Fold this protein.
Amino acid sequence: MFHSINDVLADAHLRAASNLFAPSVVLKCRGRALFRSQKARNLACYFDLIPDVLAWSCLPFLLGSTETFHIPDFAVQRVDGDYLVDVHDTPEWALAAAEDEGWLYDCASYQHDNNAVLIANAVDLLPYARTSTVSLSDRVRLLTVLDDDGPLPLKHCFQLIRNSSEPMAAIAALYFSGEIVFDLTERIAPETRVSRT
């Protein structure tokens, strides 16, 4: 059926390119953002949010041959090295093939069940990443209160954003700029504590 490994990879890319999964924003992706499932898209949101991931790419290459092959969901560049990641279980032979080619699989760090809340928060925050802005007066007001009073619940931070029709967008802009932080290990809610970095 396929004549070369490049044909197999091109076919996988073509099939993944026909999928449209929200959100559409990507931050650290190198190359085309191609996802085989919503679960893979959601995991990519998490990659974009966590600081130890420097870059990631989708469906990077083929392991095996045209008869028996596996295409990893992601190649992830982290501060501690480069890894392959699959959303679903990776075949044992593919783990060995990757190692033969100088790659390591990280089969533990990004399991959905262990990171469900972090992934859900990443999916919620990422749409604000490139489009959100915060006015200078809102920025100074919120940062001053956080400096003077310490961490505040998210619902109180909303009250300090006066020049935006979407307070969460302004707060997310400050989060993505690294000026504020909040705990993403619990679902973002009105009581989520917001603090200065």
Remarks:
- The beta strands are 53-58, 63-64, 69-70, 74-78, 81-85, 104-105, 152-153, 180-182, 193-196.
- The chain has a mean pLDDT of 92.
- The domain at 132-196 is CATH 1.10.10.10 (Arc Repressor Mutant, subunit A).
